[in-house]
Amino acid sequence: MSHADNQVSIVKFFTEKNKDVKHYPGFGIISFAFFMFLYLPILVVIFYSFNSNKIVSVWQGFSFKWYLSALQNEGLMNALQVSLTVAAIATIIATSIATAAALVLSRGKDVKHVKLSETVINLPLMLPEIVFAVAVLILFSQLGLQDGLTKLILAHSCFCIPFAFLPIRARLQGMTNNLEQAAQDLYANPWITFKRITLPLILPGIFAGAMLSFVISMDDFITSSIVSGGGATTLPVYIFSLVKQGVSPELNAISTLIMLVSLLLVTPVWIISKRNK
After folding, report:
1. Residue 268 backbone class (left: φ over 0; alpha: ψ -120 to 50; beta: rest)
2. Which residues contact 34 (CB under 8 A, 6 or more apart)?
3. What whole-number distance in Å separates Cα of residue 160 and Cα of residue 121?
4. Phi first, then psi: what are they for 245, rounded to 5°?
5. In CA terms, which of 8, 23, 216, 254 is 20 to 30 Å from 209?
6. Domains in the chain and their CATH numbers?
7. Is pLDDT above 90 for 92?
8. How far apart are the first and last CA of the chain?
């Protein structure tokens, strides 16, 4: 058999008989090892969050006391309130801007430099976050902005825009404008067309972008630690201050609660995306 015939046989093996990557030799073992490496530490954190012993690595008994201790921690609750406030406002701002940008780039007439515009919108994704945080801090210093909460909201709104933009843009690219053109043929003005046709169709993308922005804002540490001022400590920054004092079961409980909330936010997005497919 010639070298060309061998290449053809290899291609047929990986395309015809094994279209599912699960059938590739050794793939199952590698996948199992990967997921164990990825999720086993998370399971350990959840497990020891129910440990009644103050020493994390020594199991003493099952208890919810560290969850109660975390919920009664005044500093933790203040940090949580700041994070929720910042994430909620930043999500609204970022999603509104991202929706407008996606509509202009997808449905706008005679729009020039579309690729350049998309690059500018997605620029916070390309820059290292430390660079973005320092640049925003310098800008706020030049503007004389002192309020820590306002700085956090503005900074989070900026870097959440591309996370909201990508699902909305993908949703618009995946749908035709036939219904919108039909509405215009029936003398509907642009606002009625957007309200009754475009908005209901892109609503799953808007919801996905908003939830993604909210989770990203809640989890952000680098920008929050650099930009935040006095009285505006976010939850990740507060947790980092606890880590420097040593790992405790209370910290495990806080981490478990954060993972649970993130899961509750991401699950509806996943369900909606599966239904749309």
Report:
1. alpha
2. none
3. 10
4. -90, -10
5. 254
6. 3-48 (no CATH), 68-276 (1.10.3720.10)
7. yes
8. 44
